[in-house]
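Model it.
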Amino acid sequence: MAEYQPGWYPVPSGDQTKLRWWDGTQWTDSVMPAPQTDPNANPNPFAGQQQNAYQQQYNGGYGDPQQPMYMTNGTWMTETDRNLRLAAFVLNVIGCIAWCWTLVALAWMIPMTIHSWRIYKGEAANTTAFGVCTLIFASQIAGILLLISKKDA
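Modeled.
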């Protein structure tokens, strides 16, 4: 399989409901559900060595096309996005602790930190509005990281 380009391919075990990431040299642990396909379509995803259709569908043209995508609670994100969102959450926790001496700040810091965790877990959308609010009211660096990370619809 070394002649194949990195991309999402059917799992080697033959399970047609899942795809596994081939990094160009070996199979990785990253798997995702296979998209619904037209039964009349070409069943061989390796044909033509063109850019993988699964990768185009799930990556949406964002970021490095070779970077594996991870699904978290129904949200697809790259490893870079996961790291940016985790760093934003950690900085929100630090900011919450730093501001805990004022009760007024806790009124917005705790809910924003919880929402930041939900964004990291893929349970809440990463929006520009929340990134700006984090930038202004919680942590400037965390807000910048959320604004850099891909926005969810």
